[in-house]
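Listing S7. Sequence submitted for prediction.
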Amino acid sequence: MVATRVPGEDVKSMVRQGARKRMCFGFCQDKSNDPLLMIEPGKKPEALRAPLKKAGGGPPMIWGTYVVRSDQMEMIVEKVSAKVITQLKKFFRKNRPKVNVLFYDKGGNLLDSLKPETSDAVITEDKVADVAPPNGSGKPAQELVKRLKKIRPRIALAPGPLEMKLKRAVAKTVKMINDDKLQEAETLITVLEMAMVKIGKSVENEQRTLARAQRSRDRMSLGAGVKRAQALRANVARTPGSSRNKLDRAVHKAARLLKSRDLNGASKMMDRIEKALTSIS
């Protein structure tokens, strides 16, 4: 195992590693009284004493293991020093790990804690389980959910900083779907899919991914077009006078364009119908 020093700017990376598996940590001050934090995988945190000394650290030292669950980091301190725990706490406060930090001894007794704060640093993939499209959103929303669930397990394969960005994008997409903002959600899902392609973590190449995304957009546009045509037809049916027959024929023409997948033509026709209805009213 290789011990890694954790500078302040890498504290969030330390949190991400702890979210994947339990890690060892060691902490002390170096000869310049600067904080010296090191981590490594494994189950023998006392082994970090030598790397800490080699990096210029000296007693008193603390070491132990840590793991991140949800929005809190639990640090089990095997070698306890209240003074050094306070120094580590100060180091974390300065560098904002964005999780609650709890310090325990080996017996499970709480030694200290960092002031609780709302966390968005660790976004679990369970966010996808919160997808609840509004009633009536139909197949387009279901298709987006299916694509999102397909992406989810691959996000964990992305390198650290990118992984967190992608998880935040997943959470944002979930909210968009729940708010019935399907077009925006589809765009963001396509961005997620392309990100997976670019880092080589997708089973599809770029061309196939883009083609599938375009088919999805077309189906969504078709569904939206059909709903729009149905609403227009209902409005035309209530139109007084001789204009009704002309507008009804225009609605039928828009429907034929939709059936032939001429979405642009259908949209332009429906724009004209809406404009005519506005002038009549």
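Caption to Listing S7: primary sequence and predicted structure tokens for the chain studied. The radius of gyration is 28 Å. The first strand starts at residue 4 and ends at 5.
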